[in-house]
Amino acid sequence: MANGIATVWMPVDDMARALKFYGETLGLTVKNEGEDWSELDANGVSIGLNAREDTHTESGGGAILTLQPDGTLYDELVRLTDAGVTFVGEVADRPWGRVASFKDSEGNDLQLYEPPSE
Domain VOC, which positions (predicted)? Predict the structure, then answer.
């Protein structure tokens, strides 16, 4: 039985570029940094940046990392857009919350999530 998330692994092609994106652009705390593996803290969840294996060079498909901003979804969308992030489509309004989709520097799928207002 799984009892929680230990680490989310994100495959990357360029570690320096990925660290800049996750550390500077998204504002996550870099816990350790290496050539083939780096780790960030996302409010208690570890995100591992793993150098992409030679046998897995495609950046499509796979897990989607969903982040919850400190402030409003709109404010974070503006901040990230100003930092050069391009969002895919419009903000999706769902009964369970709002989602804005974008890609990281390595082509992985990410989302901003805002729970529904009460």
Answer: 4-115
Cβ–Cβ under 8 Å, residues 54 and 43 = no
| Model confidence pTM above 0.85 | no
Among the residues of the chain, which ranges form H helices? 15-19, 73-82
Give, in order, the Cα–Cα distances in Å from 42 to each of 29, 63, 81. Answer: 7, 16, 20
- What is the layout of strands, in order, in the sheet containing 109-114? 65-67, 109-114, 97-103, 87-94
Cα 56 off chain centre by: 19
Q: Model confidence over 29-67: pLDDT tens digits?
A: 999 999 888 999 998 998 999 887 554 455 555 677 888
